[in-house]
Amino acid sequence: MNFPAILLAALAALCVVLAAAPLRRHIVSRFVLLWYRHQLPAMSQTEREAIDAGTVWWDADLFSGRPDWDRLLAVPKPKLTAEEQAFLDNETEQLCAMVNDWETAQIWQDLPPQAWQFIKDKGFLGMIIPKRYGGREFSATMHSQVIQKLASRCGVAAVHVMVPNSLGPAELLLNYGTDEQKNHYLPRLAKGLEIPCFGLTNPHAGSDAAAIPDFGVVCKGVWEGREVLGMRVTWEKRYITLGPISTLLGLAFRLRDPDRLLGGEEDVGITCALVPTHTPGVNIGRRHNPLNAVFQNGPNWGKDVFMPLEWIIGGPKMAGQGWRMLMECLAAGRSISLPSSSTGYAKLAARATGAYARVRSQFKTAIGKFEGIEEPLARVGGNLYMMDAARSMTAGAVDLGEKPSVISAIVKYHLTERGRALVNDCMDILGGKGICLGPGNFIGRSYEQLPIAITVEGANILTRNLIVFGQGAIRCHPYVLKEMRAAQDGDLAAFDAAFFGHVWHVMRNEARAFFMAVTGSAFVSAPSGSAPQLRRYYRQLTRLSSALAYAADVSMLVLGGALKRKERISARLGDVLAMLYLASATLKRFEDEGRQEADLPFVHWSLQDALARAADALHGVLANYPSKLVGFFLRLVVFPLGRHFASPADRLGHEVARLLIAPSLARDRLCSGIYLPRAESDPLGCLEAALEAAIRAEAVEAKIRAAQKSGAILGASAAELAQAALAAKVIGAEEMSLLKRAAQLRDEVIRVDDFPQDLGRSESARPAQPQRAAA
Ligand SMILES: Cc1cc2nc3c(=O)[nH]c(=O)nc-3n(C[C@H](O)[C@H](O)[C@H](O)COP(=O)(O)OP(=O)(O)OC[C@H]3O[C@@H](n4cnc5c(N)ncnc54)[C@H](O)[C@@H]3O)c2cc1C
């Protein structure tokens, strides 16, 4: 036999072995299984519970290398019911009108009492509680809209409303509570008769929350005059939001049962209980001062506090199930609270800063027309469109019944980071106007408070480095979790099916990634019903999805358990997944909103930016690969012709910036859903009026400039020139009054607050009077 014939025969034999499952299992898979079990990183029970928690949704498509765009576009657009819309337009607006950042911080160091009462009376604290318990039973989309609107007005109001509706007593009770616990507490929580908080964080266990040293010991004790089985709990919690004024403390601690009174293990595990804060031994009331945000936040502690086992959420049978409960419930709140509040801050900042950039002139030019200011304005517009798209799509997914654990980490990280970057850009554009605090400053408090969003619900560095990819690679992957489970159970047949499915998956993605890279994705199909202007983005995203899937598989194979410690590799892979998610949301938003042509600059900018960032992240993985050889090989497959994803061009940035500095439907859509006071006594209302007036005045000013240039009129100042133009009939009386109104509003807009020597402390004991007369 010659060489080709031998090769063919060997290949044929290999095909027979691989095609015949029983043979393949015997000859190949059982050895691979042994190797795999050896490679499998050690995983604690808490890590396993974190990975098992929640659901996967569109993230799984993106991770597969073959996203089904038609499926995404068919997902219904999130909508509010008539009742929800009415609550948003009435009660939420009314609450916004009652509060503002300046007074909460300067006068009340809290919400004003009447606002607190309003929140309780109108059911803001029971938005996730079903109607049968007296709650509002709002959708996740509505919940997100309320938080967004409140955040655009007053951070403290947003936090005080968001926390009881996020992971805490109500949600845990709804999912795990006994009927007795639900019937007792849920109606009281819905009506604001109980103020809840949830205490997990301990001084020694922040990010590594499963390591809390707080403990309870199962024992007998006397409760309400009789001996009952209970637990003595010792804890020290800090940073607990609503803690200082809470009446119902959700408490997480590790339960031990040294005398085996529960009949099981000695280490029962993390347990969650509901503790009325009037219980003797519970210490609450002291406050932290989180960046002057003045929402209620503080430590609480107790030593050997006896409580009956019935206080465990779900009763004694749920002892030790606390971590699983927390992980399972984390996704819904994390999908909504911080993404929505960050988007609310960002919308306010974008709307107000765009207006300011048109009203404020330097060098005889509106600052928003300088190329230097256009650059940050473009980032503001592009990022905000994408943030809102992701906020809304994610809330919609929760409404569809998803508990999207990986997606919730993506939106938590990327929307808070973009919110922070966006507000920073706005601060730079505003100059001193953003810096001097006072009733007229509409952005300073957001700027101060955004780092809080970065830290809470999974600090951002941890979320990016450990959670997005770490959890995503296992949860979203079509085969890895199946392989791991089969390996753990020693199930050879299941392992064989998953492993060989995985092998074909890798080979297919390798071929696809390479082919799409060398052909510029020209042969990739975009969804047939999608907007023609955007089809190229679908193709490029599909290409990057295949590249991600392939690079992730190679990384898991080459680095194995070490990938967990190679955080900079896994963070970048997570960034690629995140960019694909954010870009998908942007494409979907454009379709859902009826393809608004005027919004295209936002859409193009944000998609081009996301593609460039995804490509940069992927390139970062390859360039920093622990094995240079593997990195080189990966680059040959993923970027054989180099990187071809440019950041948005200046011209596109110019178009985006222009949309922010003039009133338009596109600007209204970009900033929709915020509290927009129309009264000129309010800083934002004044800005809106000043923007309109400035634009109308520009035409009059152009006439005056032309007359001055031709020598028809003379004058040293703008006021003198205007008078001269009026006298020379270059402009009419109406135009003159337009100029005056624009100047008056501009003066009001550029004004910053000033205070007496003590910065007004002596005056802040009483509610401030509005300093400006209503127009
Ligand atoms: C204002 C505020 C309100 C809060 N409200 C509550 C509440 O109501 N209930 C509650 O239980 N908790 C609450 N927390 C706690 C919060 O959710 C965080 O869990 C906690 O702040 C994180 O712990 P830490 O601040 O001690 O940071 P640390 O855990 O010390 O982390 C410090 C830094 O290290 C990073 N890091 C940690 N581990 C890793 C890793 N493996 N890889 C990479 N980076 C890592 C983190 O990202 C962070 O940047 C609140 C915190 C604040 C500040």
Report on this structure.
The protein has 775 residues and is an alpha/beta fold. It is 58% helix and 8% strand. Strands 1, 2, 3, 4, 5 and 6 form a six-stranded mixed β-sheet that branches. The chain has a two-stranded antiparallel sheet with strand order 7-8. Helix 14 (371-399) packs antiparallel against helix 15, helix 18 packs across helix 22 and helix 19 packs antiparallel against helix 20 (492-518). Residues 197-201, 206-207, 239-241, 290, 297, 452, 455-457, 459, 461-462, 465-466, 567 line the site of flavin-adenine dinucleotide.
User: How many strand units?
Assistant: 8
Q: Helical stretch count? A: 29
C-alpha Rg (nearest Å)? 30 Å
For the sheet with most strands, the description reads: 6 strands, mixed
Mean pLDDT: 94
Structural class: alpha/beta
Low-confidence stretches: 766-775
Q: Which range does the strand content fall in?
A: 5-15%
**Helix content class:** 55-70%
Distance separating the two termini: 99 Å
- Per the principal axes of the C-alpha atoms, what is the gross shape? flat
Bound compounds, each kind once, are:
flavin-adenine dinucleotide
